[in-house]
Amino acid sequence: MGFRQAVQEVRLLYVAEIVGKAGIYCFKKTIADLKNEKKIDFVIAGCDGATGGGGLGYNHAMYLHKLGADVLTMGDCCFYKRDLTEKFDKTLFALRPVNLQCGAPGAGYRYYKAGDRKIAVAVLLGQFGFGRIHAENPLAFLDGLLEKLRAETPIVVLDIHAVTSAEKQVLFAAVSGRVSAAIGSHTRVQTADEHILTGGTAVITDAGRSGSFYSTGGVETESRIKEYITGIPEWTKEAWEGCELQGVLVDIDDNGKALTIERLRVPVELGEMLP
Questions:
Q1: Is 191 helix (H, G, I), strand (E, B) or coil?
Q2: What's the CA gap between 52 and 38, in Å, rounded?
Q3: How far apart are CA 96 and CA 98, in angstroms?
Q4: CATH of the domain spanning 8-267, picked from 3.60.21.10, 3.40.50.2000, 3.40.50.720, 3.40.190.150
Q5: DSSP 8-state symbol, 258
């Protein structure tokens, strides 16, 4: 996994969902060394819970981009923070799901540069289990979306933000051989099923989360238990125990086929000065 083949064109790092201040701290402390040591060409960071565990604020978006994230992907919490929502159209490195209503601000896919190569990144939102946002059937978007993306570049990466593993597996099957990688997100628990489909598409059901490992989805556990008992959301209590950055590394060749996929878990020591 660690050997970089001569035919490889792009090494992609997908940073699993950054959750709260601990997740941002993990990204800050590790990203420069990771990019250097792993010879990473392009960084996608899942940011659906970066600000307070739910959503992404504009200042955090700018900060993570400045630190080294080429693209910030979001899912069901994409419009939780008004300051970013109002600037989505001009924040070209932030993506919300493509299969939302046509009047939604921002974009669900864009093209970027990875060295001298063009890469397309898109986000698809699942239909099941989301109470505050409703997406169109992602399968209905695939043919038109992939035809458009692949006309520009063979290197296409999808962030599939969905609740159920079953829906993710269906979408993986539907895009097999048509995209370079389809990376599952949302559940914030890293799965151990990374592999490459026969068509050359790298997949993992969920890349995990970056932040506190000894927590509930990156958030302080007692507050999550209280929410389940009362039904009142409580996302303000940060968790810091067992900090680590999680994600996947994917090597993609010049034809847009995945060569390797490798899970990452990088422990992060807490310094004296926390953010």
A1: coil
A2: 30
A3: 6
A4: 3.60.21.10
A5: E
